[in-house]
Each structure stands twice: as structure tokens, then as C-alpha cells.
Design a protein that fits this description.
Number of domains: 1
Number of helices: 12
Helix content: 40-55%
Strand content: 15-25%
CATH topology: TIM Barrel
Length: 334
Amino acid sequence: MDKDILIKTVARLVAPPRGILAIDESLETCNKRFTKLSVPTTEEKRREYRELLVTAGDMEKYISGYILFDETIRQSTKDGKSFPGVLMAKGIEVGIKVDQGLIDMPLHLGEKVTQGLEGLADRLREYKVLGATFAKWRAVYYTGENIPSGDCMKENAIRLAKYATACQELNMVPFVEPEVLIDGDHTIEKCFEVTAQNLDVLFAELKNANIFIPGMILKTSMVIAGKDSKVQSSVSDVAKMTVKCLTEHVPKDIGGIVFLSGGQGDKEAAENLNEMHKLGALPWPLTFSYGRAIQNPALVSWAENPNDMKKAQELLLIAAKNNSEASIGKYVGK
């Protein structure tokens, strides 16, 4: 492990006023979104859509890295330029989702663990050759009666630590993503409690595994009420409780923290991040790593008129710019 390489990659990824664009949807998720919009679920249509995302002009002003999927990192533009090559030419870091999805946790009804450790080191080496400088692994936690359990938190933390170790051994920055899902009717206070407990378990495991904390990025969900909660969270409450939770439960020397949008609306995700940056100085870089919250307008536009790529890319750029402004507390809600 070369700590200097890791620190420099992290610094490029979280340097204000930029964030990360996640275009790492699995084939199943991507096809579901296409089906809803009556887009054919073929590899070529996925390639065409991703070319729109990868080639959009001026994205490097607002986006420091793209997280790709196994299919995407191997694809090219119509004129034969590899997607990673296009991004690198713009000075954008190439990332790759390396987990292989969720499976039921044995003897734990309603809880999931993430698979993908088998063969991980070999996959990471290949992705590095293809241009990747960072990777991502996602664990999820449902909030309900007696869940998430301590066993679920511990097992996912162990797997996240093994993944992070494999990344850092190859000088790739690990994005460690423990997502407390927005599904459910839990209160914002319950979300705080679950997130805090899980972060404690996670960082204890990362330290046990000797993970170099300044050479990693935490990709986390915000502290927010469940989408079916009777009382929905205000922007002010989300900002204050999220920052309080992270300040109290994340090491001060972490390379950076980025948020997933996690089912929030496009505007909501930007407003919440923006409000956090109005609370005063933070101990770590804090920005976004959104997928749907940046892609949505462009995807809908492209689905309606696939021939007008320019309009879709303009909408993509506006969404990226809005979140860039939110990452420094200057979002005005255009």
C-alpha cells in the first residue's frame, strides 16, 4: 500500500466544488428504469445512454469521479473511444462497483448481507488495468422491529473491511457504503440511532483490519425519517442530525464523506446537502455521490427523444451544477 497515492486520489475526488456521479446501476436496475420509460432493455440502448452520461461537456467542472458498472467500464463510444479513456481525458477519476449484490442473511429474517469477496482481488486488478482508481461496495440495513441486528451490522462490517483491504493493497481508494435504507415508517430519531450504532461497529472493524482511514471515503445515507413515516423530516433537521451523527461517530482523519441520494427527490437531496454546509466548518470534506438525483432529468428527456442527446446532456449538466453548488453551501434551487 502506498499511502501517498491513496491520499492524492482521495484529494482529487473530494476537492470542492465537485462530487461523484454514480452510473453503476446493475443490469436489473437499469433495465427496470428503462422499462418504466418504454426504452428497449438491450445492451446497445444501455451503451447509448451511458455514452450520453460519459461524454457530456463540462461535467468535469462539477464531477470529480464516475462510478461505473462491470458492463460500463468495458464499453466505448460509437466512434470507438473507451468510456474510461473519455473520462480520464477530462481529468475525471474512474470508479467501479465491485460488490455482487445482496443475499438474505441466514437465520436473520428481513436482513441482507453483500456478496462478492470471492475473486475480488483479481477483479480489482483487471479494473485497475482498465483505468479504475477507486471502487465501491454497498451494504444495506432495513430499519424495523429488532432490525438491523448487531449480527447483521457486524457481518457487513467484516465484509466491508475485507473489501477495503483488497482495494488499498492495490492503491485503489475504497468507497465504503453502509446504507440505512429510507424504506419504512421509522422516525428521524430512530434513523440517527441506527446510523450511529452502525458507524461505530463499522469503524471498529475497519480499524481492526488496519484500514488506512485517510485513504478511504465513506459513502453514507443521510439521517432522515423513513419514507412512510407520519412525520417527514425538515431540511434543517436532516442537516443538523446528519452532521451531529457523522461528527460524533466518524473519525476526524477520514479522507472524505459523500452522500448517496437513497431515494430522496432530486431537489431534496441538494437542499439537504446545501444546508449542512451552512452549519459551519466541518472536520472532513463533505460532498455528494448521487445517481438518480443527477441522472433523472436527463434519463426522462432521452427516453422521450433519444435523438436529442444535446437537451438531455444540458439537463444532466444543470443537475450536476446544482449539486456542486450544494456541496459548498451555495445552492439556490434553480
